[in-house]
Amino acid sequence: MAPMALALILGWCLVAASRAQHLPPPSLSLHPSQRVAVGDTVTLRCHLPRPAAWVELYKEGERTFKMCKDTDKEQNTVEFHLDDIRKEDAVKYQCQYRVLEPPGTSEKSDPVALLVTDHSYPPRTISLSPEEHVEMGTNVTIRCWNKPYQGSTFLHKDGHSAPIQHQEPDGGGTATFTLFRVSPADSGTYRCSYRLGGCCFLFSPLGDSVTLEVIPTSAPRGAERMSRRNLVVAVVSGCAAALVFGLGLYFILDARSFWIRRDESPCGEGA
Ligand SMILES: *[C@@H]1O[C@H](CO)[C@@H](O)[C@H](O)[C@H]1NC(C)=O
After folding, report:
1. pLDDT (tens digit, 9 = 90+) per residue, 181-213?
2. From atom 14 of ligand 1, which residue's Cα is the shortest distance away?
3. How many A from CA of 165 to the centre of ligand 1?
4. DSSP letter for each residue of 131-176
């Protein structure tokens, strides 16, 4: 009896699986996508690959909430507004949609993290060594510290949306970042932030900045000077060669005309 029941269940599962349609996942985006602070408003946009009956938003963590919205046939984006962002909102979000005919639920979108800045925390202090103007190829050290708050520390460079490095601070609350063998591309303004309380995606504000200016070393200038000298040598030797050739040609022609003149003279006499 048991094998037959098993076969029946298996058969039902196969039929159900073949009837279930594959619904590609939607994608979720945040607006604004960065520098969101406590108290701000954020819009989460769920982009649907096809018309859906309704859309749910999932918030990571113990408190998962669903928001349902009817989407008309033409709509391919559904917006959810989060007003007055709190610390607890700094988590990952996903969205999902359902269709009625035939009934089905899509896969969830890739998770998107809402990074929130809490301005009630003091920023990290930052220092640069060696200071400001450094030669190419130097190893530059950037230190960020703030004793009471010892979370992961992030190094930001102006013009980059994401932190360029991150580190756990040592016991003294200092995080040390090294930029190895800097090039002019490393020039720029740097700041630090840190993650708060081990929780979620909550960050301190960006602190004071340090500015690094990498100056090209004299090596390339030396090479340039060298190549210019080579060019001068090439031109001079080329001219010298042309002069020698020209003089040689002149003497050969001169000698030839002398011989021709000498050959001609008997004829002249004979005429
Ligand atoms: C920079 O750091 C690298 C790796 O630690 C090291 O090999 C190199 O000698 C350092 N260069 C200078 C100029 O200190």
Report:
1. 999 999 999 999 888 866 668 888 888 899 999
2. 139
3. 19
4. -SEEETT--EEEEEE-TT--S-EEEEETT-SS-SEEE---TTSEEE
